[in-house]
Amino acid sequence: MKKPKNYSAIHCWIRSHYGKANHCENPNCKHLSNSYDWALKQGYQYERDVNNFMQLCHSCHKNYDMTDQTRINLWLSKQFPKPVSLETRQKMSNSRKGKTWPSMGDYFKSINSLPRLEAHKKQRETLRYNISLLTPEERKEKYGRHNKKNKNTL
User: What pLDDT was estimated at residue 36?
Assistant: First the structure.
């Protein structure tokens, strides 16, 4: 089944009006998954009507949407993958010629050498030192969890 243009909008509407799916309505559920989805009931259209949807765990949702035709298409795609033409292979090869993947060590060295990061570290150290000089009452007043004036927290 092809997704309609308003697919995302309808799912956003359901989540905003009814919250995230939090249980599985399948009576035969084996509880293989802890994540839940709003699933369109078979034979219904994508409309802003919660009665067209049901809550399923991810495992049951996948099995519910798996029709015979999708099962056949999945099997065929695994048995006979689409061939990549010689021309496409050549283009892919040419696009990577002479290029190497950087090592993670080089990546972290480049990040840690940024002057911006050093300035940020000094700023945090200064803030921590200044906060440590305050009494607990002053600290709570200035940086308290519910203080909306200043959102600086440790």
Answer: 92
* Degrees to nearest 5, angle at CA 11 with 9 and 14: 110
Q: How far apart are CA 109 and CA 58, in angstroms?
A: 41
Task: 132-139: list long-range contacts, CB under 8 Å, 24+ apart.
Answer: none
- Residue range 41-73, pLDDT digits in tens: 988 888 889 999 999 999 899 888 888 888 888
Q: Which residues pair with 38 in a beta bridge?
A: 55
> What percent of the chain has pLDDT above 90?
17
Q: Nearest CA to 32 among 61, 69, 66?
A: 61
Task: Provide the residue ranges of all domains of the chain, joining segments of one domain with +.
Answer: 7-78, 104-143
